[in-house]
Amino acid sequence: EYDKAIISFQSAIELNDQFADAYRGLGISYFYSEQYEEAKIHFQKARELFLKQNNPKAVNEIQSYLINIP
């Protein structure tokens, strides 16, 4: 299930590399697939984009995932 989501989010990023929600979705998909290094990379990119968008709620959500990566 997460594999399909990963493919979809990657396709979205290919269309728009500034799509913060797609990076967040990739991070979540990798997180729950226990691919923590990939999750971390995509969460960090999502956080960077959400900061530029001045979206503190999304930044806080990303932080909560990042602190739970083993």
Q: Which structural category fits the helices and strands? A: mainly alpha
Report the span from N to C terminus: 22 Å
Order of helices and strands: HHHH
Number of strands: 0
Q: Based on CA inertia axes, which overall geometry fits?
A: flat
Unreliable segments of 5+ consecutive residues:
none
Beta fraction: under 5%
> Mean of residue pLDDT?
97
The rounded Rg comes to 11 Å
Percent in helix: over 70%
- Count of helical regions: 4
What does the main sheet amount to? none
Oligomerization: single chain
Structural descriptors:
70 residues, mainly alpha, 4 helices, 79% helix, flat
Protein architecture, described:
- This protein is mainly α.
- The protein has helices at residues 2-15, 20-32, 36-52, 56-66.
- Helix 1 (2-15) packs antiparallel against helix 2, helix 2 (20-32) packs antiparallel against helix 3 (36-52) and helix 3 (36-52) packs antiparallel against helix 4 (56-66).
- The N and C termini lie far apart (22 Å).
- The model has no long low-confidence stretch (mean pLDDT 97).
